[in-house]
């Protein structure tokens, strides 16, 4: 009997062995095929929950340099946190300062506009066309669900921008008040070269020009070679408008009154002054001979190499800090803070020291009409969050406990504060990072006390002593056909001016020719229209 | 060869055969896999090469179309600032659009011989890179209008450092003018590092081996071993098959490195399967063997030993039974075998029983006879009494009493003699004496006749053979007869030399059925109980007959002939005078 059981046992074990072998073969292939799915399903469930939409939305975003700043949520905690909170997944649709105009036009024409994008086409026919073609999603009339957003839309320099009572964009607030633009234009100057060449702080245009020329010609670095440059710039528009501060057309891109009539500044006689100064800088060698061939941010690189005397650039602390970073890499042995100083530019012919001033937003956030209501709602909530105190704190300081602590109500940044790449994306998107709401101490910890002090001191001085450039928003922001149409011509001002500066003709003759061209492009019509509206609305 | 050995040989042979087969097929499969992998790798190489050539071709075309674009050409040669600016703006727009022509293009850089440049940037380190490449290009002869240089570099671009594929080509002036045919600048294209190697990097991980694209200085531009990109190629240590192929025009080399043992990739599965199968086979064979051994070989062996033990031990082994487990046939065999032994045992038992019963009977009979004889009266007392009677009879002169008592005394003396065998003479003497008595009793109612061959008188015979027969003849034959009877005793020699004694009477005879009974009882079959049933007559005749038969065996014995109313003759047949049976003629 026991022997029978032994036999049974042996046979059973053989079967078990065979079964195991076969099961093993099967399991392998099962595992291979099923390994894909758990990963997929976990990814789907990861983004559920949060204060935003009930499902995660993939939204494409376009904004200058978005591709560099919008990184992988897996490695960027800030991005991950915001995405989870708002149930959005951001995908970059790349644009840069060099190609954005073309790209947006291309996308609009081919129906590829991103879900959310930022561009400075305000008051141009392009936007009108887009609105007419139904490419843009209008904001809802009732913004009570988005309290912070609602506040923005009711600002004095925003309200006029409604079209038929609807807003087709959200202003990208570069500043929370126009005064804050004071340090958005200036010169970073090589203090050490000034000392070397015995140059005093310039005030007039002549003094500035002489300084720049000396930088270029008088071998300030003492290497015996004529390899230095006087003045260069970081961005053509910044340069153009900076030069305007010390000219008879301080609001060069806007409208001014002349002889009782409102005209675009470029039509003003004051352009002669502007152009003369500009050309002189170039002809005398004070200005970088290659100034016209510079790409955006080339100026900073050039300056960092150490052979440039002055850089026309934004002189706020964050810009100074960016230049410093490049400088330190290229000149590790020379302290940036010790080498530079910042200057506001020369006084205008009317004797005023002007400071830069403009609408708090020069660009706007647009939304594609292809968005579903749910997606749009999620995005608006996201924008609302960005404008909220919580959002601003998050972007400015980081995560409480990790990047900063709150002691007695003041923010104390921690030493190993993480610099999230997506931080640039978020603050750039809303522009709120430019804001001065971030306390000085925090800025000092970010940029270094020297630069912060330098910038703040200049700001205080300018606010106290300088006049804002004369802009009448009610006129500048008039939204009318001819005006908008001509605005795109105005926006190309630097190109036209550059050609004149580079050319050999004298400025008056050359500009007269140019004005004729502008005539052909509808300048008179625009002037007519604007003045009519001014009269109609009783704008002062 | 024993069953067990043959079985083992069979199993072993099977196992060896299967293993041999497996090995042969394993080798076959191995070589097939090797060839397949080899072919596959060659295919891949060919694919990668053609893919790369396509890429390079595309790049060549882009180089050609950009470098020889009119705007670009004029820009590189322009010295007037205004014109330069205008051309620059145009060129910028053009090149921005060109970026989108092919996947992977990051940017373009132009470096003019006269100092005009596009996108060169102002980072000294970056400029250094480009200048180096320009130097390199100078030292190489230019062939065609396509890419003349390609390399993977770590470059700073747009603020970040990264690995980029940089392709470059000198630009020759084609515009009418003094610079026709001269090199007017260098064209660079910045691409994703993976552009050239997309085909390689897409090679699935299942493929054996590593593929590399090396540039002129043996730096790895692309590989499916992504960790090595950017490093200088080294000779691989170990057993590898290395194949190199130079790509014409661009000076690249494609290298494939196959670890030799990986060419057998995939064989592990087969190997493990084979081993597993073999193990299972061995297990199965083992089980089969065990089953058969347990159920057939062992029980047969046991039986074999048992039989040998029986042969050796003989009678004692016969009480053992064999116990066998195994196949049904074995069980039946064992059962039947045991049954056979049982029957043998039974039969032997029966045989012994009957034998022992026989001897027992014989013993009992003899005991009966002895008892019977012992129940006789003490002889000495009888002699004395008879002699006293004889004395008295002599005194008183009664002759009959004297004769009878003398005879009786003689008979008694004779009967207590210890000798078993006596001479015939003596036995006859007693017969005479007996008859004397009987004649007196019967008052001469019968006569006696003797017919004896004197030469036989000395033959030895058993004692008390004749007397019981005479008695039978008198009391069962003659007594009941009317008229005068005759009793005859005849002794003669038979034809074979045997002794024949016949006692005949002409008395009443024996009934035929009774006669049969008597004859039966002579044949040793009767038990003493049965003998008693037959009455005194039976005992006597049967006793004599059996004694003769028992003592002398065949053909000696006693025969009875009788006819009812006519008479009875009892014939004794005894051994004759052959040697020891003969006494001397001296009586005694």
From TrEMBL, chain A:
<keyword id="KW-0449">Lipoprotein</keyword>
<feature type="compositionally biased region" description="Low complexity">
    <location>
        <begin position="33"/>
        <end position="48"/>
    </location>
</feature>
<dbReference type="Pfam" id="PF13416">
    <property type="entry name" value="SBP_bac_8"/>
</dbReference>
<keyword id="KW-0732">Signal</keyword>
<dbReference type="InterPro" id="IPR050490">
    <property type="entry name" value="Bact_solute-bd_prot1"/>
</dbReference>
<feature type="region of interest" description="Disordered">
    <location>
        <begin position="27"/>
        <end position="52"/>
    </location>
</feature>
<protein>
    <submittedName>
        <fullName>Extracellular solute-binding protein</fullName>
    </submittedName>
</protein>
<dbReference type="InterPro" id="IPR006059">
    <property type="entry name" value="SBP"/>
</dbReference>
<keyword id="KW-0564">Palmitate</keyword>
<keyword id="KW-1003">Cell membrane</keyword>
<keyword id="KW-0472">Membrane</keyword>
TrEMBL record, chain B:
<dbReference type="GO" id="GO:0005524">
    <property type="term" value="F:ATP binding"/>
</dbReference>
<dbReference type="InterPro" id="IPR036890">
    <property type="entry name" value="HATPase_C_sf"/>
</dbReference>
<keyword id="KW-0812">Transmembrane</keyword>
<keyword id="KW-0808">Transferase</keyword>
<feature type="transmembrane region" description="Helical">
    <location>
        <begin position="274"/>
        <end position="292"/>
    </location>
</feature>
<dbReference type="Pfam" id="PF06580">
    <property type="entry name" value="His_kinase"/>
</dbReference>
<dbReference type="InterPro" id="IPR004358">
    <property type="entry name" value="Sig_transdc_His_kin-like_C"/>
</dbReference>
<dbReference type="GO" id="GO:0000155">
    <property type="term" value="F:phosphorelay sensor kinase activity"/>
</dbReference>
<dbReference type="Pfam" id="PF02518">
    <property type="entry name" value="HATPase_c"/>
</dbReference>
<keyword id="KW-0472">Membrane</keyword>
<dbReference type="GO" id="GO:0016020">
    <property type="term" value="C:membrane"/>
</dbReference>
<dbReference type="InterPro" id="IPR005467">
    <property type="entry name" value="His_kinase_dom"/>
</dbReference>
<keyword id="KW-0547">Nucleotide-binding</keyword>
<keyword id="KW-0902">Two-component regulatory system</keyword>
<dbReference type="InterPro" id="IPR050640">
    <property type="entry name" value="Bact_2-comp_sensor_kinase"/>
</dbReference>
<dbReference type="InterPro" id="IPR003594">
    <property type="entry name" value="HATPase_dom"/>
</dbReference>
<dbReference type="InterPro" id="IPR010559">
    <property type="entry name" value="Sig_transdc_His_kin_internal"/>
</dbReference>
<feature type="domain" description="Histidine kinase">
    <location>
        <begin position="398"/>
        <end position="578"/>
    </location>
</feature>
<keyword id="KW-0418">Kinase</keyword>
<keyword id="KW-0067">ATP-binding</keyword>
<protein>
    <recommendedName>
        <fullName>histidine kinase</fullName>
        <ecNumber>2.7.13.3</ecNumber>
    </recommendedName>
</protein>
<keyword id="KW-1133">Transmembrane helix</keyword>
